[in-house]
Amino acid sequence: MTTKLITSKTLELPPSCMHFVPSQSQYFIVGTYDLAIDDPGGTSSESRRSGSLIVFRYADRELTLVEDFPVPFAVLDLQFQNNNSECFAVASSAGDVHLYSFQCTIRACVTLEHTIRVAPSSDILVLSLKWLWNANMMAITMSNGDVAIVDTDHLKMRHTLPRAHSLEAWVAAWSPLREKLVAYSGGDDSVLRRHDCSNRQDSSVSKNHADFVQDTKLHGAGVTAILPLCVDHDKSEFLVTGSYDEYVRVLQIKPGLERAKLLLEQRMDGGVWQLRLLNYSQPPITGPGKACHWVLASCMHAGCRVLKIFQPPHRDENWSLEVVGKFEAHESMNYASDAQQDPQARDVKDLTFVSTSFYDKKLCVWKLDDT
Question: In this structure, are residues 222 and 243 in contact, taking their beta carbons and an 8 Å threshold?
Fold first, then answer.
């Protein structure tokens, strides 16, 4: 399929992340990241990070700026609590996680509710966050390589996995297995780690603890995206990962094994920064018994990719991936993309996509087109 641009807008600050509001899908929020250098080129130049939360409304093919909410930190990530929530969390460049509520009123849309200090110092960036499925905990990753679990009910750290990665810990995700509290993390050290956090209440867990399972050979560069797909009947987990090495991979994590099995890899022509599952009403089976997973990939300098991943009905058959659409109107790094939820959508062509690019500060609204 081809892609069709509907409208675009240039923002005041570089966009780093975005998310549609699950409970009010005509709205979406963009987080921005600005790095200002005092006295550039001088002997004592210092950098300052700041940003904003920008609320847009997209309805009836009209894009409207609703609110521009400045914040004294750069925004690295934002995630809503669950599909029905108006609560969302923001990862900050100052070592904090901020909890906001969203409700459009006459005065404002975004309200700060709580702040949780998670990093040991304010010069450590919180790079990503991911809510647990029951929304009372959150996995976060930091620029010093730490991975931490935050108790959002009691607004405190549950425990920290210090130096889980030797370089930046870019991303975290929760296992689709719900019998245990298991998180995955990916780092700039090209490592994918699996952390069993069950029954751990202490504030710090040793890096050498046996709960850590790592894979250092599958990815040729930093692991930047992890998307849990599903669980097999034997409790094997299936993940999709993205990397700076420009590949999307499908991995199988079998119970009791320390390494992931590579099922599929395909190059995207750009570093894969974000993977987001597309949800809309569709038959769960396509073709002769194959399950289909639709994924939106933000591929940095290559733009967006809409992916169709086929899961075979039998283990001795191969997984496959089709790039259904490419959106390449961005002129710099595409870090953030999302699709507007539409209960009436029956095909991926019915979805409306929003994507952003960092250095040119561009926001685009587009659709797939098979004409």
Answer: yes
Interatomic CA distance for residues 105 and 336, integer angstroms = 27
- The continuous run of DSSP H or E covering 364 comes out as strand 362-369
For 349, phi and psi rounded to 5 degrees?
Answer: -70, -20
pLDDT grade for 33, boundaries at 50, 70 and 90: very high
The closest of 128, 255, 264, 129 to 194, measured between CA atoms, is: 255
State the residue for tokens 């004409």.
371
Which residue type occupies 102?
F
CA dihedral (186, 198, 229, 352) positive or negative: negative
| Model confidence, pTM | 0.92
Burial classification of residue 314, based on how many CB atoms lie within 10 Å of its CB (0-12 exposed, 13-18 middle, 19 or more buried): exposed
Q: Which of 273, 337, 300, 297 is nearest to 127 (CA)?
A: 273
* CA dist., res. 112 & res. 89, Å (int): 10
- Give the mean pLDDT of 9-20: 98
- pLDDT at residue 289 is higher than 80: no
Rounded-to-integer distance, Cα 56 and Cα 18, Å: 11
